[in-house]
Every structure is written in structure tokens, then in C-alpha cells.
Task: structure prediction
Amino acid sequence: MAAVAAAPASHVRRDPREELELPDRDYEALAYIMEGYQETQSNVDEAIFRCTSKTPASRAIKRLAAAGFIVVDRWNGVGVNFLRGTSRGRNALVARGVDSSRLFVPQRPVAAKDLRHHMWINDCRLALRQRGIDASPCWMLRRKLAELRPLAIPDLLAFPPAATGGVAGLLAVEVDMGTEPLKVFVPKLAVLRDMVVQWSGAQPAVVLVLTVGPRRILAMEKAVAEHADRVGVVVLPLPAASGRMAAQELSALLAKLM
Result:
């Protein structure tokens, strides 16, 4: 009978205090989760694994959870998996040289009233990433700009790269769920446009508003056109799709814009 090959010594933990070493892509997934504050498993799959099978992402999530690096929350017990990083996970990434200012350890899940808005922000973050653009979400901006106390912070801020190198301009993204009256939202948008002018300097800049409903889009376009001197504003509808298709439709929208 042939002898069974022993497991490589590097995979054997001889002391419970030893850190479990995971595949590199697991750590990439962990960083993506923690930068997103709370992410969906499907977005992590699209961002890091990008393959036809869901198995690699599923196994990575199980390994990260078993290591105590993430918490997995199942929406309503039967829906999508929401993922949050832990202090242990942050320490593991910092030990690998990841910037701790980009990592978040929420103590509890995003509140139900804010969940749809939060998910759309992360879907936009994924869509921009797929186009080679690193976007900072609002929770990261609030941390980085805390001392400056800006009058407005967009849901996402990105500096798309130029084909020749350097930066092509500035993109601020605002996700509007239609819950605020326009007489409240539009003045806030005006303040954001002023901030974008300051941040962009001589670089071209645009504010992208993703919102709901054709009537709201028309009304918003009319309102922002009255202050076209500040910075350009593009108003587009949020995709009707959800899940994996949401980020794909957002990517298609961005392809037309950029």
C-alpha cells in the first residue's frame, strides 16, 4: 500500500498562539472587506476572485471567519452574506504592511435604515475598481479629513488616472435614495460642488449623482443647471438590478461617463 504523503510542515500549527497563515488572496479579500466597512460576499467575489465558480470566494470567507478575521451576518437568516472585519483581522493586515487608516472594524452591522445606501456606495466602489480607479468611500474620507472638517463629503471620491500617467481629474459620487426633499438635497449638493472646486484645483472635476425615478432626475437636472458655474453635475439613475448585476450595470454607466 502506498504511503500517504504528510501535510507540509508550514501548514501545521504546533502552538495555539501561532498565527494561521492564509493564502495571499484571502488577505486581499480581507483588506477589501475592511475598506468597505461592511461588504457583501458577492462584491468580494467580483473584486478579488473574478471567476465563474463561487467556490474560491466561499472557501476564503470560511477560512477568514474560522481565523477570527471577519464576522459573517446573513441578511434575514436567508439572504446575502454581509462581512465585517475584526480587530484580529486588522492586526493581521497591519502586520503585512497594510495602512491601518484604510481599515474599519464596525462593532455592529450597518443599521437597516442605512443599508441600501451603504450597499450602493460599495457597489459604486466595486464598479470604479473594475475600471482601474481607486475610490475612497465617505467613511474613509471622514476619518482622513477629520481635522479639516470640510463642509461636505461625497459618498465616494476618486482621482481617475490619466492614460499618460498622473491624474485625469476628480470624480465625486453622491448616492441619492430619494428620501430627502430636493429643497434639502440640492443646497447640500451646492456645498459639495464648492468643495470639489477647492479639491480639484486646476484639474477637471465632475459630480455624479445616482438617484431614483425619472421625475426626480429631471427636477434635479433643472435645479443644478442654475449653478453650472461651480462644477459639472451628471445625474443618472441607479440600476434597477440588485446583487452581482448591480455593480455590472454601474460599470456600464461609468463607461459612458468616463
In short: The longest helix spans residues 112-130. The chain has nine helices and eight strands. Residues 20-109 form a domain with the Arc Repressor Mutant, subunit A fold (CATH 1.10.10.10).
